[in-house]
Amino acid sequence: MILYIAKDLTGLTGGPQAGKDILISLLASEFPITVISQSKQNSFLLPQEKNGKCLNIPDWLLFSKEKAIIKPPQRKSQIPNYLIDLLQNKLNQLFNSVQKNKLRQLDQQLIIVNGLGNHLFWENINPEVTHKKALIIHESPRHFQKPSYLSLDYAIEAFQNYSYFIFVSSRCRDEWADIASLDQEKLLYIPNCCQEDLIKQVREKQMSTLRQELGFPQDQLVAVCVASLQPRKGQDILIDVFPEILDILPNLKLYLIGPTGYTAKWSKSLLKKIASSGWGDHVEYLGPKDNCLDFIYGADVLVLPSRAEAMPKVILEAMALGTPVIASDVDGVRELIQDGQSGFLFSPDNPSTLVSAFQAWKNELNNIDCIIENAEEKYWESFSKEQQIQRYKQAVSYMLAN
Questions:
Q1: How many angstroms separate the CA atoms of 116 and 45, rounded?
Q2: Is the distance from CB of 336 to CB of 309 less than 8 angstroms?
Q3: pTM of the full predicted structure?
Q4: What is the CATH number of domain 196-382?
Q5: Is 6 left (phi over 0), alpha (psi -120 to 50) or beta?
Q6: pLDDT of residue 402
Q7: What are the pLDDT digits (tens) for 285-311?
Q8: Per-domain residue ranges for the chain?
Q9: What percent of the chain has pLDDT over 90?
């Protein structure tokens, strides 16, 4: 039996969404799967088949969230809520104790942990386990630069607990192998993919109707940046040069879409800067959306100005949806986009190149279909769901055999 460790499979950000894609690929690979998660099995729908094949139904072992209870409040009015939290936490601890006993009774041939973010979750559940463990790495080394609350040393130390490593980016694989002195025979490469059934549904929508439903202006070009607001995603780079971009494209409207994440202070500062500018009406923050694919498909261009990315799912979605991409040339992004051929790249260390990338996109507007076709072809040739399924089937077989 394979245990798949994924704390969150319902979130709207890239990690949980990629985690769901991986689960589907594992189920399609015909191995018996038990999911260890804090997401309830009935909180989202798994497809019953994929590419004409019936999917296995996974077993599910749910764990409850345990809060860090702070000291008792000094205000009497806060005491009832404090006592409720205290009682709920105790019940969750008892429930998790029962689940841990069930976990120990399972035949664990291979344990697959979906990302460093789930490493601590798994260690807290079952630290004494000695079975084969594989870690899926969605991060580049630059994910661990400040203000990240995790350090590079933490990541390298976590690697010591695993027998195999599955990288979503070949560039990040090579860099991590050098930094952490990883055995090449233990390294596997399986890139992310899209939820292609949803992509198909979105592409069937009538474009003008969709743009109207989304509230897009009919007489402006629309750019969307779909990413949580945080320093790593680099929205500040985009905003800093946005006046220069407007000099090139005065009819451009930018929508920022995504949660504020763990850097609320940083996000508020960014949004305040936009609101106090003389061009704030050209930028709108919409918050998190559960129909991001509609926004990507309806837009004229997707912008991702990140300082670090391994294999950004949002770029894969844009490629499959036929939306041009302007993105930073970091890490795994260069595996997806060839500058000037299937999209437009810039260096986050040189913000003026982002302005140049918008200029290049503007210059190609009359020939944008060629850029779009190249990107679509790249997706289906290298990153399709069918390929991910086959790669996980081969990887699991390899790990079980060795």
A1: 25
A2: no
A3: 0.90
A4: 3.40.50.2000
A5: beta
A6: 80
A7: 999 999 999 999 999 999 999 999 999
A8: 2-193+384-401, 196-382
A9: 67
Residues 384 and 376 sit within 8 Å (Cβ to Cβ): no
Please count the other Cβ atoms lying within 10 Å of the Cβ belonging to residue 32.
14
For residues 13 and 19, the answer to whether their CB atoms sit within 8 Å is no
Contact 398, 132 (CB under 8 A): no
Query: Residue holding tokens 């198909």?
Result: 200
Q: Is it the case that residue 129 has pLDDT exceeding 70?
A: no
Pairing of the two strands 53-54 and 49-50: antiparallel
Please compute Rg for the chain using Cα positions.
Answer: 22
**CA-wise closest residue to 305 among 357, 237, 230:** 237
Which CATH architecture describes the domain 2-193+384-401?
Answer: 3-Layer(aba) Sandwich (3.40)
Sequence-distant (6+) residues with CB within 8 A of 37 are: 5, 6, 7, 8, 9, 60, 61, 62, 63
Sheet containing strand 301-304, edge to edge, reads 283-287, 252-257, 221-226, 301-304, 325-328, 344-346
87 Cβ partners below 8 Å, 6+ apart? none
